[in-house]
Amino acid sequence: MKRYLFLIAYEPGGWDQASVEEQQVFVDQHQAFSDYLAQHGREISAAALAGADTATTVRHESGELAVSDGPFAETVEMIGGYYDAELPDLDHATAAAALLPVCYSVEIRPTVAIGQ
Amino acid sequence: MTADRRADEHAVLDRTVREQWGRLMSLLLAQFRRLDLAEEALADAVEAAARHWPSRGVPDNPAAWLLTAARRRVLDHIRAEATARRRAPLLVSDAEQREQSTRVMADPGGVIEDDLLRLVMMCAHPSLSPESASALALRLVVGVSTHDIARLFLVPEATMAARLTRAKKKIVTAGIPFSVPASVDVAQRLDIVAQTAYLAFTAGYAPGSGPDLLRAELAGSAISLTRVALSLRPDEPVLVALLALMLFQHSRRDARVGADNDLVLLAEQDRALWHRDEIEEARALLTRPALRRPLTPVAASYVLQARIAAEHALSPSPADTDWARIVTTYDQLLALQPSPATHLARAVAVAESESPVAGLAALEGIDQSAMRSAGAHRLASVQAELLVRTGDVDAACAAYDEAIALCRNDTERAHLARRRAEVSGQDRSSPG
């Protein structure tokens, strides 16, 4: 089993503008994704994120701690949520990501075990 | 030990490597799942064979000898790693147990074909860039050296080594499986294999830049890759069509370069230098029933390109070429897959079939910016050639200048400069 982080990117506003029926389709698709994970591997955690306009970025700039408003990278799409899961390989991860709503771009990142 | 014997031993080793590399790689991967160790161990085994065979004689089964030697090396590595981790007993016995259970697979056979297909599928995984997939398949499936792959794609060897290392790291880290995907995906993956092979072939066959001629020979390794894939899926239309297309083009390799390294155009080539056996094989491939099934767009485009190549290859002389049929086939190709390069080739066929003026008119539809931004000099060079035929020498020279400025291949640029000199010379010798 490998551990993958699924980073979900989409254009902001989609959920709020969707009708109740459309929102139900989203929910069903997330359920299908979770079912797939349960069948082939394990879901470790997941969360939807508040909008990128609520983000705070912390970094060190020439030795000073700099805390600034906004996300690290400004893009049209933003990271709106994530799944952290274990699956056998990238093909299973891809098959799972394909079940999520079609308006998403899903970045699949393998995690690295530190200090083993 | 005579020199002849030694030459024989090297020939056997070369042939074994050429024909069995992918099978041996896939067996090692199936057994150990260690991409890093498998490739290094196999290369070491080939080196050991080059040292030992001349003094000890060629073994009865050269491929099995290489496999055994490579397996020992992988086990040595795993043992060393295990010792370093102080968990030696467990890991070594595990690896040795697996070796026992798979020793029966030493002879090439059906089981191994599945492993080889797994290897091909892994190299053509859609999560790898086409350039990486192409290089990786040449390395792992056909055993082309990093040095030669770098030469084929015209990048420094260190760059190619880094690209291959990155691709292998992605396979391991991202968890690209060593497996045959679900049947629906196999066709898509074979399209990628084909595109990957064709990418390598064109890198060698149609020199984009540089003075290299050996790359035509290296293009042959792309044909080997296609043959391996076709041996695994003999009725796959995309592979049948691609092999036909590449064989038609490759059959002309000796005629395409003149004595002074000049590029020889199709019409001036000595057709006696064309490899007739390859043309015949390509022609037979085009009649395969597999191509009468519904085709993917990629496969259909290879069929059409192969048919055009066949018109040239099978026509006894340039004058006998059926240019009208070639134009029709280009029309079908454009309908399927419009591209400036296809448009350009069609305009050349129109010029031959009708007149240079008609050809120039056909050039007008081409998206010049798309063509030029790609650094392509061919639009200007075709324009120049057709303008010469209409007698407009000034315009032709201007077009040659543009083509020469855009051209990055030394051989082709020399050819263009020579043509420009000829044309402007004609102009001076007959003023008015």
Automatic annotation (TrEMBL), chain A:
Coiled-coil ranges (or none): none
Family: Belongs to the YciI family.
Name of the protein in question: YCII-related domain-containing protein
Annotated YCII-related domain residues: 4-102
Domain of life: Bacteria
Organism, as annotated: Nocardioides daedukensis
PANTHER family linked to this entry: BLL7171 PROTEIN, BLL7171 PROTEIN-RELATED
Matching InterPro entries: Dimeric_a/b-barrel, YCII
TrEMBL record, chain B:
Domain of life: Bacteria
Single Gene Ontology MF annotation: DNA binding
RNA polymerase sigma factor 70 region 4 type domain segment(s): 121-171
Pfam families with a match to the protein in the record: DUF6596 (PF20239), Sigma70_r2 (PF04542), Sigma70_r4_2 (PF08281)
Stretches assigned to the DUF6596 domain: 189-288
Gene3D superfamilies named in the record: 1.10.1740.10, Tetratricopeptide repeat domain (1.25.40.10)
An annotated GO BP: DNA-templated transcription initiation
Every RNA polymerase sigma-70 region domain range: 24-82
Keyword Transcription regulation: yes
Family recorded in the similarity comment: Belongs to the sigma-70 factor family. ECF subfamily.
PANTHER family, per database record: BLL6612 PROTEIN, BLL6612 PROTEIN-RELATED
Protein known as: RNA polymerase sigma-70 factor (ECF subfamily)
Organism listed in the record: Nocardioides daedukensis
